[in-house]
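Hey, I'm writing a tutorial for new members on how sequence and structure tokens pair up, and I'd like a real worked example in the thread rather than a made-up one. If someone can provide the structure for the chain below, I'll link this post from the tutorial.
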Amino acid sequence: MVDRLASQMTDDAAAGRVGTEATQPDVAIVNYSDLVARCMGNLAFAEKILGAFEQRLDEDLVLLENEFNQHDAAGIARVAHRLKGASANVSANGLCDIFARLERLGCTEQLRQVPACLDELRSEWSRFKARSPSFLLAGARDER
């Protein structure tokens, strides 16, 4: 598993995608260099937190949409703030940026702009899941 994450980091670095903005189609979803640095070089731990992040975020996105459906600006700000931090912890910069915008929209009660931001979030989340190294964890479970 660790070798696959290291390989992904090498592939992204060779393609010039490491450490760049994550909202462009051919750009890394996760800044692997930053993530591994945050994990003090422990690739197994990096994979573990990415897997936990991915498992939890689907539920959290439902919660965020429920807050919007209830017109709860403070709830949107609260959930978006937490998810912004979680995204930053795994160096998912594109997601982090979107959650930061959602947090600002909630804090300023600009709910009319939230649907467009949620659409962007769904798109970025799909890109994350399609490219995320947490598939390594699933592969490890399959190998058992």
